[in-house]
Amino acid sequence: MADTATKKVLGWGRCSVDGHDDIVEDSTSLDIEEGDEQEANIEGGSAEGRKHAPDKYILTYNRRIGSASEVTVGYTEDAGDVTVTPENVGAIGVTLKECSRHIAVKFDTKDGLVAVYTWKTKGKTDSAGKLTDIVFAAKAASGGA
To answer: Which of 50, 66, 90, 105 is the 20 to 30 Å CA partner of 130?
Structure first.
């Protein structure tokens, strides 16, 4: 049996989000909001059919605020796309497409005033049911994701 292991370039470490490279350490995360599953049951409780609503993805990260003009707090329904670019060339980055964005602020004595960014996909799918609002790509040597 041939060795089918492939070398994986890990994406941990410093990342940037849409050019922001001043993200608070350990604050970037991509989470999932799983779509609800509906089940059509027949008498006796057996499932005759199932349907699963699309998943939504939520990207959250924090940035320290250096000046009042850096951030506008609030919610934007159609904020566009957001890309997380990993530190290492060849590591997999992610782009969330056609997101909503919420920016809030928080304060603590360790980090000072911090902007909390939350981007969320809408769970869009194509005719085959494949999610179209999340895309993965390896970081190229030129610095893009």
So the answer is: 90
Helix (H, G, I), strand (E, B) or coil at 70: helix
Contact 69, 115 (CB under 8 A): no
Residue 84 near residue 59 (C-beta atoms within 8 A) = yes
Please count the other Cβ atoms lying within 10 Å of the Cβ belonging to residue 107.
10
The identity of residue 114, as a single letter, is V
Q: What is the full per-residue pLDDT of the chain (145 aa) written as tens digits?
A: 566 678 888 877 788 999 888 899 999 999 999 999 888 988 888 888 888 889 999 999 999 998 888 889 999 999 999 999 999 899 999 999 999 999 999 998 988 899 999 999 999 999 888 999 999 998 988 744 4
Q: How far is the C-alpha of 85 from the C-alpha of 144, rounded, in Å?
A: 7
Q: List the beta bridge partners of residue 51.
A: 38
pTM for the complete prediction? 0.83
Residue in the block written with tokens 């409780």: 45
**Residues 6+ positions from 49 with CB-CB distance below 8 Å:** 39, 40
